[in-house]
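Review this chain:
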Amino acid sequence: MASPLAAKIRPTELSDFVGQEHLVGKGRPLYKIIESGNIPNMIFYGSSGIGKTTLASIIAAKTQKTLHKLNATTASTGDIKDIIASLNSLEGTNGILLYLDEIQYFNKKQQQILLEFIEDGSITLIASTTENPYFYVYNAILSRSTVFEFRPVDRKAVQKAVTRAFDIVRNENNIQINVEDGVCEHIASTCGGDVRKAINTVELLTTVKIGQTEVNVSLDDAKEVSQRSNMRYDRDGDAHYDILSAFQKSIRGSDENAALHYLARLIEGGDMASICRRLLVIAAEDIGLAYPQAISITKACVDSALQLGFPEARIPLAEAVILLATAPKSNSAICAIDAALERIRSGEYGDIPSSLKDSHYGGAQKIGHGIGYKYAHAYPDHWVKQQYLPDKIKNDVYYEYGDNKTELAAKAYWDKIKK
């Protein structure tokens, strides 16, 4: 059975490895570790197809340790015990390097079995995960490992791998492959930083028939094979929350172009629900009282989008994003309610003043409820000074007026009246 092209192109030397310059560039942390040959326990964190397995294999080849590979999706507790048993055999003389792919699928018991042996150095663990290890890997393993975050490979580095992949197909099949200008660039730009996806695209474009001596790869062919950008988006994974975080922070920072960029990513992911929910949150949390009408307009845009569906929904969603990004900002409302909640959760707040308690029933006045209450509408400007907070916290202040036109106008109004 023929090996996939992605396996054939996998480099065996660090000099051929593409991407992750922040980790393996000369003088960078992981580069120094690999060159020293003194390999600690490590966790490689990042999306698929960006070199985690390849780099682990390169590291393993540089050590004198016996390499064992396990995939946590299929490995059992028995598999771990078999590796531990080999420590007492000849192959365990120099120690064992265990490459554990998708460690997030190991349960707590399976991870704990490894603890003793990675702690004393008899097993060196290199684990990989596509999920945030701080959420999915148990603290005992984390505390004994160094986490390295892998990033999507940049377009130039992917293009280098794509060019090499075409060369391998040429040499292996001894055929002429004519690649139209722009093909390598297109594949590199539409793979979402995933080298494996890019190489798989090359493999699809260069499928060789028996007896064939020449293959022509056009830009149209490349576009057909990669009809949709392979942007990373997983509604249950880190990519989902990272995009939503960048989306809200861009609107909060009043950068409408960045906000539209992240909106486009979310639209490409088809995630209408997350977009709508986040826009409503932003209208209240980040624009708030600086432009109180923003939430009503945003709600109208959200309702329109839900009624229209994609692709037309992109228009009212973009309208809401631009409105919110260019609107004045205030977080006074969220700060105020969070301060009030903090007081409640402390348990130090006391009883409601008797004058404010319900007095709409017979006998209420006999126990003092409602006595002394002043009806605000019966006074000039509909305001009268009286205590509303419980005695224990009567001087608490939760809301601070924002420094925007709307809130400053409200402050000036009440300062005048309450004087």
About this structure: The chain has 19 helices and seven strands. The mean pLDDT is 86. Residues 41 and 125 are 5 Å apart (CA to CA).
